[in-house]
Specification:
By secondary structure, this protein is an alpha/beta fold. Helix content is about 30%, strand content about 20%. It contains twelve helices and 16 strands. The strands form four sheets. The chain has an eight-stranded parallel β-sheet. Strands 1-3-2-6 form a four-stranded mixed β-sheet, with helices on one face. Helix 10 links the parallel strand 14 and strand 15. The radius of gyration is 22 Å and the shape is globular. The protein starts with a strand and ends in a 10-residue tail after the last strand. The chain binds acetamide (ACM). Acetamide binds next to loops.
Length: about 375
């Protein structure tokens, strides 16, 4: 193995390698150790076992990724996945050269991170199933050692029941008894974007958790907020009038822009599910395209819209592996759509992510 340098794992590093297997030896050449590991993964795929023993097929392979973002999202909120299960899946990611582990850490059904500044979150909203900060650092290092970036997601302002179970005063519906959800669905509890205390709370949380993750990207969710509790709250309606926010999308954008500024203080770039893409959203946000025919959209519609509007983007529609479609079905989806794009637009498509939503998934079946 010939490696020129050790890479700091981040988006866009050189992951290329060449692998040569001849009768006299095996050589891997790579600019970085991450590229060399990909060469080793390929070599493992080439092992042949027969009555004669083990052998490798003679090959000359020159390989580099088409996309810089090749992700797997794991939802540990709906069903908690213990550390060893996360690591098992990170090992599998490395074998198939996936390089982003997107960790969906909060949802209506649970908040899964130990926080020292806001302990109510995991004490009241996790059933005792959460990662300690030491475990998170250990997993981030484990992934980093395998060339895999870790992007955390804290889903706000919707999918927020776990937050509000711990801090009901931050909810958009006052005097409601919030408790974590036990079933699947889209629920109404939503953080109150008109309450300054919501931003103080998120600032405190992000300040504490941001340093646990070495990657620059930080996912704020942003999906499936139907705004029912916003519509029903006269004070929120009054706030929208005063701030000339004409609908719930504009109110959510107001919220997202506040979050982007908080994250920037902690060195993080905001990404979110495609609903965050509204006219005033800064172009620095990364748009995560997910909706398709089940949501009344064309597959990849938001991906194309994102690049045409100047955003970087990744695709998950077509990679919902929790839907139990065939492997063939997923493999035939290409993040690069068959539409005319300029080179600049095409470059903004960074790649894709498979989504392992866990409503029906347990540590055994993941
Ligand atoms: C999503 O599937 N709600 C992003």
């Amino acid at each position: 193995i010939y490696v020129e340098s050790e890479a700091s794992v981040m988006m866009g590093i050189d992951e290329s390698y060449t692998l040569t297997v001849t009768a006299t030896g095996i050589e891997i050449h790579a600019a970085t150790d991450v590229g060399a590991m990909h060469g080793l993964s390929t070599l493992l795929q080439l092992i042949k076992v027969d009555n004669e023993g083990y052998s490798f097929t003679g090959v000359e392979i020159k390989d580099e990724p088409r996309f810089v973002w090749r992700g797997l999202m794991m939802d540990v909120a709906r069903h908690f996945l213990p550390v060893e299960v996360v690591k098992r899946n990170i090992d599998a990611m490395a074998l198939v050269k996936l390089n982003v582990f997107h960790w969906h850490l909060s949802d209506d059904q649970g908040f899964r991170v130990e926080t020292k500044t806001l302990p109510e979150l995991y004490e009241k909203a996790s059933d005792g199933l959460y990662y300690t900060q030491a475990e998170i650092k250990d997993i981030v290092k484990y992934a980093d050692d395998r060339g895999i970036r870790v992007v955390p997601e804290f889903d706000v302002p919707g999918h927020g029941t776990s937050f509000l179970t711990a801090f009901p005063e931050l909810g958009s519906k006052k005097d409601m008894e919030y408790s974590i959800e036990r079933y699947a669905g889209i629920f109404d509890p939503t953080l109150d974007p008109t309450n300054e205390k919501t931003y103080e709370f998120l600032d405190t949380l992000f300040k504490e958790v941001a340093p646990l993750f070495t990657d620059v990207y930080f996912h704020i969710g942003g999906d499936e907020n139907e705004g029912k509790h916003w519509d029903e709250n006269p004070e929120i309606q009054q706030f929208m009038k005063e701030h000339e926010l004409k609908d719930n999308h504009e109110l959510q954008t107001y919220f997202n822009i506040r979050l982007e500024k908080i994250l920037a203080k902690y060195g993080k770039s905001l990404m979110g599910w495609e609903e965050i893409m509204t006219p005033n959203m800064p172009k620095s946000a990364l748009i995560h395209s997910w909706r398709g025919v089940n949501e009344g959209m064309e597959p990849g519609e938001s991906l194309i819209k994102a690049v045409k509007n100047g955003y970087q983007t990744i695709l998950s529609n077509g990679y919902y592996i929790d839907l139990l479609l065939s492997a063939e079905d997923h493999y035939l989806v290409d993040p690069m759509p068959e539409v005319d794009l300029t080179d600049e637009e095409a470059k903004r498509i960074l790649g894709g992510e498979a989504t392992m939503w866990a409503e029906l998934v347990t540590p055994l079946t993941v």
